[in-house]
From TrEMBL:
It is a multi-pass membrane protein. It is found in: Cell membrane. PANTHER family: PSMA PROTEIN (PTHR30250:SF26), PST FAMILY PREDICTED COLANIC ACID TRANSPORTER (PTHR30250). InterPro entries: Poly_Biosynth_Transport. The chain crosses the membrane at residues 12-30, 42-64, 85-108, 128-149, 161-180, 186-207, 314-334, 404-425, 437-461, 467-490. Keywords: Cell membrane, Membrane, Transmembrane, Transmembrane helix. It comes from Xylanibacter rodentium. This is Na+-driven multidrug efflux pump.
Length: 515
């Protein structure tokens, strides 16, 4: 397992480097684009992009399906099966692209005939952006099978290089839009679509040259039964992703309808900060999920579950490391960032980050259930749990409950009932023992949360709020967190794995530097 841990650590390192650069450059690029387009045109771009992104769950379901089947076949070691999966996947994504084009060309007439509130003088430009964003989305859909191939081969170095290149091209687009005299909104749409096309072509050429399974042939590799199996799997994945997306949009609408735009702004602030923190977890999962899929394919279920349990704990710890100081100093940090902080923002952020941290406790168990393959009833029950917060919140708000009950209900249903469903199917389908979940995840997580937040909270009691106190809290939280992790959270076996993987990574870096 130390070899696996070393591979995961190395791949995570590549992805974190790419992510860090992307975050910094993206913040600067967004600022340039906002200033160049102006608030109105930037809003038009976001509205139309959001409208098209509404059906992103279709692509998400197929992306998960493609990734699962390719990882599984990689674990089985069946080259011909991988070629069939690739051919079927390309076919499905081509059909999905045609479906999206048809749906959105029909929706085009409804969007621009009363649904979208766009100034008359910018209507023509908005229509151009709509078509360009649709074309860009089609290009992105076509890259899914190729991304899945690269991910299955755990070629995270190439993925990080592509991420950096894409980030730099987005910066170049921002600079071009700033300095070129034209309809900047349309120009921005054209360049963004061009980047999507370029990266689709790069991925296609790279995969066809480097991976033998990238052989598309309907006559030779198309498998009707595999097509049925993959579309069925994607259908159940669609239940999950669509119910989750609609529930999240619905909760925002419920909050807005009962309490107005101020509460929506507070929720937006909470989601933005929490979303940035969640990037760290999502990046790690990109490196872990291929390993879980391969273990399922090679029928190493017990080993898959050990990796899944350890990975869920690590995912929580990665988020907690960055989140704990934010939780303790939320009021001061929000005032530094925003100056005028919307009411309820502090409360909402703390609830939102707590909800996301609880999600991490079972996040790779979900990956294990998906990798194992029997997801029909899991998807149905999990999808139902996603919708539960909507009627309960509406009922409570009608009785005059405070806005924060929105998050309490969400945590009880999504994290409470939802986690119970995940644990049940991890036990039933993958043989996970409940006592292992308690020992590996629950006890260590409760210990580090109580100890770190209690001691860091004491600092805020005895020191007046200031930038100096923020630095002290950051230092205190970091020292306590690392100490408790090493002393109480990690088992002796986990310490051995982490130490050997870290040393192996350091040796590899030194060798490359010498070279």
């Amino acid at each position: 397992m130390s070899e696996t841990a070393n591979r995961i650590l190395k791949n995570s390192g590549y992805l974190y480097f790419s992510m860090g650069l992307s975050m910094v450059v993206s913040l600067y690029s967004t600022r340039l684009i906002l200033n160049a387009l102006g608030a109105s045109d930037f809003g038009i771009f976001c509205i139309i992009g959001g409208a098209i992104g509404m059906l992103g769950f279709l692509n998400a379901a197929m992306s998960t399906t493609t990734q699962r089947f390719i990882n599984y076949a990689e674990g089985e070691g069946k080259p011909e099966t991988k070629k069939s999966i690739f051919t079927v996947s390309i076919s499905i994504h081509f059909l999905l692209s045609l479906l999206m084009i048809a749906v959105f060309e029909i929706a085009y007439f409804f969007f621009f005939d009363g649904i979208l509130n766009i100034p008359t003088e910018r209507m023509n430009s908005a229509k151009w952006i709509y078509q360009l964003m649709l074309l860009s989305t089609v290009f992105t859909i076509q890259t899914v099978p190729y991304n899945a191939i690269i991910n299955a081969h755990e070629n995270m170095r190439y993925m990080s290089i592509m991420g950096i290149l894409q980030t730099l091209m987005k910066l170049a687009i921002a600079l071009i839009v700033v300095y070129v005299c034209a309809d900047k909104l349309v120009l921005y749409g054209v360049l963004t679509t061009l980047v999507s096309l370029i990266f689709m072509l790069i991925l296609m050429i790279y995969c066809h040259r480097n991976y033998s399974e990238c052989k598309f042939s309907i006559t030779k590799y198309y498998d009707k039964n595999l097509m049925k199996e993959m579309t069925s799997f994607a259908g159940w994945g669609f239940v999950n992703s669509s119910s989750s997306m609609f529930a999240q949009y619905g909760m925002g609408i419920v909050l807005n309808s009962f309490f107005g735009t101020i509460l929506s702004a507070a929720q937006g602030v909470a989601n933005q900060i929490s979303g940035q923190l969640m990037v760290f977890s999502r990046t790690m999962l990109m490196a872990i999920n291929p390993v879980i899929g391969k273990k399922a394919g090679s029928h190493e279920i017990a080993n898959m579950m050990r990796i899944s349990l350890f990975s869920s704990k690590m995912s929580f710890l990665v988020i907690a490391f960055f989140a704990f100081p934010f939780i303790v100093e939320t009021p001061y940090i929000l005032r530094l960032w925003l100056k005028n902080v919307p009411e309820w923002s502090v409360c909402f952020f703390r609830f939102e980050i707590a909800r996301n941290m609880l999600d991490q406790l079972t996040i790779t168990l979900t990956s294990a259930i998906t990798a194992e393959g029997r997801i029909k009833y899991y998807s149905i029950y999990r999808g139902c749990s996603y919708f539960l917060p909507l009627p309960i919140s509406i009922l409570l708000f009608n009785f005059g409950f405070s806005p924060y009950w929105f998050y309490i209900v969400w945590i009880v249903t999504w994290n409470g009932i939802g986690s119970a469903i995940i644990l049940y199917y991890a036990h039933k389908n993958c043989g996970m023992q409940y006592v292992d979940f308690y020992k590996v995840i629950v006890v260590p997580v409760v210990l580090i949360t109580i100890i770190t937040l209690s001691i860091s909270g004491l600092v805020t009691v005895y020191i007046k709020e200031s930038f100096l106190r923020l630095i002290i809290v950051l230092c205190t939280t970091t020292i306590i967190f690392i100490s408790v992790c090493w002393g109480l959270v990690f088992s002796s076996k986990e310490k051995e794995i982490i130490s050997s993987a870290t040393l192996a990574l350091i040796r590899e870096i030194k060798m490359k530097l010498r070279f």
